[in-house]
Amino acid sequence: MTRPLISLGDALRACHHLEPQDEETADAILGLLRLRAGEATPAPSGVGAWQPSSTESVASTRRRQSDPRREYKAPARAPVPRLAEVPAPAVAGSSALRRLGETRAVFQPPEWLAEGEDLGALDPRRPPPPPDALFGRVHRRGLLSSAIGTLEPEGELDVDAIVDVLAAGRALRHLPRQLSPTTRRGVQVLLDRGPGMDPFAGDQEQVVRALDDILADDRLEVREFVGCPGRGIVPDLAEESEEDLVPWQPPAPGTPILAITDLGIGGPRLDEERATVAEWLELARRLRSQGHLLIALVPYEATRWPPRVARAMTLLHWSEQTSVGEVRRAMRDARQRLKP
Amino acid sequence: MSRARMRFTRKFFDPLAAGGEAIDAFDDVDTSDDYDDDGEDGRMLFRAGPRPEDVYVYTPHVLLALNVALATGRPLLISGEPGSGKTTLAANAAAVLGWWSYKQMVTSRIQAADLLWTFDALDRLNDANMPDQSLREKHYYVHPGRLWWAFSPRSAPHRGLTEIPEEKLRASDPGTPAAESDHRPVHDKAVILFDEIDKADPDVPNDLLEPLDIRQFTVRETNDTIVAERQVLLMMTTNGERELPPAFMRRCVSLTLDPPDATWFADVARHKYPEGDWKLHRAVAAEVMLHRDAARKRGVREPSTGEFLDALEVCGELGIDTSSKVWDDVAMSVLWKHERPPDLERDASGAGVAGEDEAPE
C-alpha cells in the first residue's frame, strides 16, 4: 500500500523536529507541504472536478453514479418545500377550491441557497467567472492524452514477432517491441476562429490550457485559422508578418494534428468565411498523402457532420459526454486511414 | 518568500555544520555558527568543490525545505525556471549531507521501470544462440537502475543474486561520493536526483509512487524483491513545462526557486569569483536582467545563470566590460542567442548597476 498523501501528521512531524520559532516559519513549513489554508489542492485521483447542476439530466447523473471508477457522491438533496394544507372554508355551498390568498405556506429554503453569493454584494467591475470546464481535471488529462498520443515501439517485447523471426531461421537484428502510447511528439493544435466557433471559444482555450499542462512548452504548437486551415493561418506574433494569413505548414512527420472546428456547421449560413465541404475534403486528401495524422474535435453531434467529410477525416463529437473510449476508437480510425 | 528570515532548528540539513559559511549580501564572510549571528538574512554558502559551479548559496527558504523533506521522509520536488539553479542545488545539497549520490537525467523516453532496473533480453537471446556459450542465469542480464542502487547497494552489485557472482559479472555502482572535499561520504544514506522529471511521460511519476512509498519493488524477470536498506533522499527537479500528476505532487515537499534578479546574479558572481571585480559583476548582472526582460516580452528563452557566468568569463578573458564597444556583440552571442537582436529598454543612464552601488566591505 502506498504512503498516504501529505497530511497534518507530516506537518506535526516537521514542526516537532525543526522547532519553528515564529509564525512565519511555521507557515512556510505548511506552504512547503502544500497544507496552507486556501492552497490549491488538486482533486484526489478518481474524482473529477464536475459538480452537478440543476440542468443535469437524470441520464447523465445515473451514468456517472454507476461508473465504479468514479468516487462521485451525490450531494444531499434539500427537503422539498411543502405547502401546508389549509382546510376548506366552513361556508355552506362554497367551492372546495383553495384560495391562494388563504393558503399558509411553510416554506423551507433549500440548503444550497445559503452557499450562493449575494448578487448585490458583487463588484460590477469584477470580470465574469470563467465558463465551467467541459471535462473534469482527471477526465480531461485522459481524454487529451489519448487524443494526441502516438504509438511507439517501446513497450514489452513482442514475443510473437520474435518467435516468427527465429522460427524462420532468420537472425534477429533488433528486438521488436510492442507499441506503447506516448505524448512526447507533442501536437499541433489548429483553432477555428470563425464566427461559428464563437460560442465555443472558452472551451477551445480550456483545451489549449489543458494541453499546456500535459506537454512540454516546445511540444505544443497552437495556430489559428478561419474556415479551413487550407486558406492559411494567422501568423505568429514572433514571425512579424505583414500578412493577415500565412500558408499553413503541417508539423514534423509523426506529430499529430488536433483541429477544434465546427467544419462550417455553425455560424451565419450566408457567411462568406464559412468553410465548404470541398475545402475540408481537399485538406483531408493532402494530409493523407503526406502521412499526417489529423483528428478534429467538432462541437456538434455526428448527425450534423457533412457525410463526405466524416468519411474522409477522423471526427470526434466534442462534448461533456465524450469518453476516453470514443477518443481511442477515433485515434485507431485515424491511424487506419494512414495505412496504404 | 525565499529571502525572508526563517527561524528554526537546522536538525537535518546544516551547511554550517558541514563546513559552510554564513553570509550576508555585502558583509565579509562570517563563520559564526550561531544562527542569530548569521548576517542579516540567514543565507549560507557551501563549497562542494574548487570550481565556481561547486558553490551554492542557500536562502533560508531552501534550508527550510531541505530540512522539512528530511524530517518527513518525503521526496523534495524543486521547481523553477530553467537556469534558476535547481540541479546545482541538488548536487550541492548531496555534498552538504555527505551522502552517496546518484543522478539520473530524465528524458522523454524513460519509463519508471528503467529507474529501477533494465533487463537485457537481446544479450540473453544472443547468448542462447551462441554454441560455445552456456546460458547464464537470468540475473546476469538484469542491470540495476539508479533507484535500486540508492535503495540497496548490497544487492545491486549482485543483481539480486543471493550468491556473490564473479567480479567481472558484478554490476558497477554508478553513484559518486557527494563531494570532492575531504568530507567523508556516508554509505548508509544516499541522495538520488531525478533531473527534469517533467520531461518524462505523465505516467512515470505515478508509476514511481509505489516503490518510493513502500521502499521496495520486485524485479519482474527474476521475481526478486528488493527492499531499501538505507535512508534515501529523493530530489527531483522540474522546469514546470508539464503539469505533474496531482497524486504525485501531494506526496512531495514542493520548493519553488525564485527567478533570479540582478542582486542575486551579482551575489552568485561574488561568491563564485571572490577575487573578481564587483562593479563588473553588477554591470553584467544588470545587462542580463535587461536581456531577460526583452526575452520575456518576445516569448523566447531568457538568459540564466549559465549565460551570466559565461559573460563574466568572456569579459575576464578579453579584458572588457559592459561599456566596451564589443559588448553588444558579446551579449548577442553569449546572453541572447536568438536570431533577431533584442529590444532593450535602457534608462537614461544606460545599462547601469541595479540596486546598491556601494562596494562590499
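The two ends of chain A are 48 Å apart (CA to CA).
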